[in-house]
Amino acid sequence: MEYSNFRKELQLRIMDSEDIEIIMKRVDRDLSHMAAADITRSKGKQMFYGGLAIMACGILGTTTTYLGILDLGDQFILAYGPALGLGMAVVGMHKMSS
């Protein structure tokens, strides 16, 4: 049953108008909570995959300079990407599961 027809269906069942209002408020609240949870999961997914990407770039940058594939002379790139990316991935994973 669609939300737009819900009130009409309750009225057809000859329910009291106060009961209908209480039910409609609860349905509104539940729909709002579900929408907010979907948004939180979506943001968590973005954080998770963004964190993995940052972590991969940091590992790649550090590894290529350390192994000499990217030669910078006596300098090395020590990226904080793996630590930052791992933190973002963990927070994103937590948001996806809640």
By secondary-structure content and strand pairing, the structural class works out as mainly alpha
| Tally of discrete structural domains | 1
Assess the beta-strand content as a share of residues: under 5%
Q: Which stretches are low in confidence, meaning pLDDT under 50 for 5 or more residues running?
A: none
Note the gap between the termini: 27 Å
Helix content: over 70%
Shape: rod-shaped
N-to-C SSE series? HHH
Number of strands: 0
Radius of gyration: 25 Å
Total number of helices = 3
Mean pLDDT: 87
The biggest sheet amounts to: none
Features:
98 residues, 79% helix, rod-shaped
Quick overview of this protein structure:
The chain crosses the membrane at residues 48-69, 75-93. With 98 residues, the chain is mostly helical. The chain is built from three helices and no strands.
Task: Give an overview in words.
This protein has 98 residues and is mostly helical. It is 79% helix and 0% strand. It has three helices and no strands. Helix 2 runs antiparallel to helix 3. The two termini are 27 Å apart. Keywords: Membrane, Transmembrane, Transmembrane helix.
List the helices and strands and how they pair.
Layout: H1 3-12, H2 17-66, H3 81-97
Helix pairs in contact: 2-3
